[in-house]
Specification:
TIM Barrel; 6-stranded parallel sheet; Rossmann fold; single chain; alpha/beta
């Protein structure tokens, strides 16, 4: 029996001057979208859909590996990570001729994914369609009753239930056998739609390692926590979290409990080593719900990583700052931990308590300080619009974010994802501004209000928080780190004297670019700026408007669209200079091509105060 596991495409191309977007679904804790302004297609692939954050589809890939282990002719295709067009996607599906198709969906993509399933059924009416994923209606019998294109639903953590379902479909379907499979919905001629109870969660070491071949492009998956290099291997060492955050999606919707499960250190290290033998990964990311839930397990895994010689590879994970301590940090530093994500959410203890995060803000601050002091880079998350939030608590949270020793941050609007307790709370309070599932695409656009804020006010605070954080960090680095002197001395050391004109590409965080521009100007260099028109007002505060050349035919730097215009600014003795928002130049490939237009050597300067 041929089985196809699908993470279908999900994008909208730019048209008529409007931005497009690309979405992520499977492997992400909630579906969300990113802007896209490049629609150039090549051989069925859209490069503009690739290059940024892309999560690995853990459940699909593990289910696919399990199906192969059980003797099925299975294939896993992650069309989002492939960056493929809809035409290319349907072409593959038609050529594969599957008996069963398993689609992972989400609230925001449900309507879209049902349309895809309908299109597939039109070509192959006998194909059996199974839906899984992060959407509350998948657990509602009436949903299956009114959705004939779906044959079966597997809800929650689905690898084991899908496998039992596939075996029943292969060996002979009966109501009795189907009713013995936990966590599914099916149609019975006698009983109508039947929903079985969710079963026991399986031990993680009983599952095979996730499939990494098929239509799973290893080089495209990426979570660049604080500047991790790519290509990157993503894996999980544990699942679950006993804490009860009202907004957390996976524990509530996939695990159906706070049960915490872990793999043996040997199994985790074995998976890393085996994949490194196949792909030259430059980093790995352990995408656990709470990596440091068990101190003993953290130390054991860190030791296994060190003993295996994997501590030369930078890696990252996600944990709780209140649970970190010196003994864990000792082991993690030796194991090569490069960066870690910590959830802070709010500076106000009462807000954390109302969100049932069960965390002490003072311990959080201490844990962050200890981590940063050991040279581990820190990414922090903060959330606005939690129950009880006021102007005062949000201001306090922004101030704390600006003070803490972290490298990167994420400010979000609290999103009551359908299926969580937060959703039920906000719905009961009458705070939901939309129950259109397609609006639930992340946390920068408000889908709800609170007792103290409108959705628009929450969106304002997210933008304001980023502005103030970026300003505080870059000003601090530039002055405390003596970046201006480092920059100027470095240019002179490279033979870039002050009689050479500099064309600065505004391709970094605008605050950082303004600091660089100010330093160059104040130290006597003749500078012109090449920038998208949206930055003119910011840059005009530093440099005269006639020295600013703008473009608007593309939002980001694109060699093919900008090379001609930039070439007209460059002459002999001119240096092209690019401030860089990360520490290794990753994602700046198009900028590098443009820099090469300079007849003299060009320069890239990072936010870490280094030349690359």
């Amino acid at each position: 029996m041929r089985v196809l596991f699908l993470n279908p495409p999900w994008y909208k191309l730019p048209e008529d001057g409007h931005e497009g977007w690309r979405g992520v679904r499977a492997g992400s804790r909630w579906p969300h979208t990113f802007t896209v302004d490049n629609a150039c297609e090549k051989d069925g692939i859209l490069p503009g859909l690739l290059g940024g954050y892309l999560p690995f589809p853990f459940w699909l890939a593990t289910a696919g590996a399990l199906a192969k282990q059980r003797g099925f002719d299975a294939y896993v295709r992650d069309s989002i990570a492939l960056g493929e067009t809809y035409e290319n996607f349907y072409g593959f599906v038609n050529s594969y001729n599957a008996d069963v198709i398993v689609i992972e969906t989400a609230s925001a993509t449900l309507k879209h994914d049902l349309a895809i399933a309908n299109n597939i059924k039109k070509s192959y009416p006998s194909c059996i369609v199974v839906f899984t994923g992060l959407h509350i209606e998948l657990e509602d019998k009436s949903f299956l009753e009114r959705t004939p294109v779906i044959d079966y639903i597997a809800y929650g953590e689905y690898e084991a239930s899908v496998m039992k379902l596939l075996e029943v479909i292969r060996d002979g379907v009966s109501d009795r056998l189907l009713s013995e499979i936990p966590g599914i919905l099916f149609r019975s001629e006698l009983l109508g739609v039947v929903k079985t109870e969710f079963g026991e969660l399986v031990g993680l070491d009983s599952l095979p390692w996730a499939e990494r071949e098929d239509g799973l492009p290893a080089l495209n998956y990426f979570d660049g926590v604080c500047g991790l290099p790519r290509p990157q291997l993503q894996l999980m060492s544990t699942r679950g979290c006993p804490y009860g955050c009202i907004f957390c999606v996976w524990p509530q919707m996939f695990y159906k409990s706070g049960k915490y499960r872990k793999r043996t250190p040997q199994d985790v290290v074995g998976e890393i080593k085996a994949n490194l033998e196949q792909v030259p990964y430059k980093s790995f990311y352990i995408d656990d719900d709470t990596f440091n839930m068990s101190k003993a397990s953290v130390i054991a895994l860190a030791k296994a990583i060190t003993d295996a010689g994997l501590n030369t590879i930078p890696w990252a994970t996600m944990g709780r700052a209140d649970r970190i301590d010196d003994e864990q940090l000792d082991a993690l530093v030796e194991a090569g931990l490069y960066s870690i994500k910590y959830g802070v959410e709010s500076a106000e203890q009462s807000i954390l308590d109302a969100s049932e995060k069960y965390i002490d803000i003072n311990k959080v601050i201490s844990g962050i300080q200890k981590t940063a002091a050991r040279g581990i880079k820190v990414h922090l998350t903060f959330t606005f619009g939690l129950p009880g939030d006021t102007i005062e608590t949000i201001e306090k949270t922004i101030d704390l974010a600006c003070q803490l020793p972290c490298d990167t941050v994420q400010f979000s609007i609290a999103t009551p994802y359908p299926g969580t307790r937060m959703y039920e709370m906000y719905k009961e309070a009458g705070w939901l501004q939309s129950e259109n599932w397609e609006d639930y695409v992340g946390s920068t656009k408000a889908v709800s209000r609170t007792e103290n804020f409108t959705g628009e006010q929450l969106e304002f605070y997210v933008h304001e928080a980023y502005r103030r954080f970026n300003l505080s960090r870059q000003v601090k680095k530039f002055h405390d780190g003596n970046y201006a002197q480092t920059l100027c001395d470095g240019l002179l050391d490279r033979g870039i004297s002050k009689d050479k004109r500099i064309v600065l590409l505004q391709c970094a965080n605008i605050t950082f670019s303004k600091l660089v521009l100010t330093a160059l100007k104040n130290n006597g260099w003749d500078v012109k700026v090449f920038t998208h028109e949206r930055f003119v007002d910011d840059l005009s505060a530093v440099i005269d408007a006639p020295r600013i050349t703008t473009f608007n035919n593309v939002k980001n730097f694109d060699y093919h669209k900008l090379s001609s215009q930039l070439s007209s600014l460059i002459d002999d003795g001119c240096i092209v200079f690019a401030p860089c928002s990360n520490n290794d130049g990753s994602g700046y490939e198009e900028v590098r091509k443009l820099m090469a237009l300079s007849p003299d050597p060009s320069v890239m300067f990072t936010m870490e105060g280094t030349f690359i």
